[in-house]
Structures are given as C-alpha cells and as structure tokens.
Design a protein that fits this description.
Largest sheet: 4 strands, antiparallel
Radius of gyration: 20 Å
Shape: flat
Helix content: under 10%
Strand content: 35-45%
Strand order of the largest sheet: 4-5-6-7
Number of domains: 2
Length: about 170
C-alpha cells in the first residue's frame, strides 16, 4: 500500500515517464491533497503550487523530463495552463481554456462534510451566488448515487421546474 486515506479514494497519480513508478498521488477531499512518494519531485510540486492558487494537474512532460505542462483547475475560473521548467523551478503562463470567463465574477465552491449513519464522512460542495454573501438563499440539491443523479422524490425535477438531477428547492 503506497497511499491510503480513510475518507477518500485516490483520484490520480503522476508516474515517472521512464520507470512508471508513482511520484505523486492525489486524493480528492475538499481540494486535491498531494502525497509525494518520490523526493525528487517534492521541490517541483512546491514551486508549481506557488505559480497559481488552483489545483495543479500534470498534463504532459517532454522527453528529457525538464519541461512540464501543468493545468491549474479553479472552481471560480477556467483552467489555466503553465509551462514549468524543472532546472530553474520557474513557470510561465501559456493560455486559458476559456478566456471569455475572465470578464465575470464567478462564485467559489465552499466545501462541507458530514458523517453518514454508517460513520463514513461525506464530502460535498456548495456554491452561493456572489451577491448572497454566503447567506441563506434558495438552493437546489443534486444527489448522486454513482454516475446517475438521484432525486428526493419521484418526479421531483418535473414538478419543481428544475432541470433533471437538480431537486428539492428550499421553501
């Protein structure tokens, strides 16, 4: 066992391009947690995390393993791509996946968690409109059971006027 977490599954891993040994393992909770298994990339991860406030995802490497392509995911913006130079531990912005979104103030997701009846921790996210300031407002809940949305009652999406999968508007 290389990485274990009592609350979440492994969400991804960065493998060495030649040996295919795992170097960094990702666990998704409130945000992605990175577990460095190979000390040779620990300083690289620290330098990459300093480039952008989002969660870095390695998207590619050159053959010499000196230049990495890093995609930063951000809950309130588009994916931002950076080139990372390992020898100098510096990065440079390349492009945004959806530059038109930069004109808007997008709402951030706020993580929450609770204990289920079986004792396991359930992690989720809530997003409030930027104008609500985190205060109570009308909301909908999308429950998922694997890949299919579950509803809070038979036919709830049709009766409520919410799209399929978005159910239980507060009253």
């Amino acid at each position: 066992m290389l990485v274990e977490d009592p609350e979440a599954d492994v969400a991804g891993a960065m493998l060495h391009p030649d040996t295919r040994e795992p170097q960094i393992v990702e666990v998704l909770k409130d945000r992605i947690e990175y577990h460095v298994l190979d000390p040779a990339v620990e300083a690289d991860l620290e330098a990459i995390r300093a480039l952008h406030h989002g969660d870095p995802q390695p998207a590619g490497r050159d053959e010499a393993d000196t230049t990495w392509l890093i995609a930063f995911t951000d809950d309130a913006g588009p994916v931002q791509y950076f080139s990372y130079d390992r020898p100098t531990r510096t990065g440079s912005f390349l492009f945004s996946s959806r530059p038109e979104l930069s004109r808007y103030h997008l709402a951030r997701m706020e993580p929450f968690s609770f204990k289920a009846r079986d004792g396991l921790t359930i992690h989720g996210y809530v997003t409030f409109p930027p104008t609500a300031g985190g205060k109570a407002c009308r909301r909908c809940l999308t429950c998922t059971a694997g890949r299919r949305p579950a509803t809070c009652g038979a036919g709830a999406p049709r009766r409520s006027g919410w799209p399929t999968g978005a159910t239980c508007p507060s009253r």
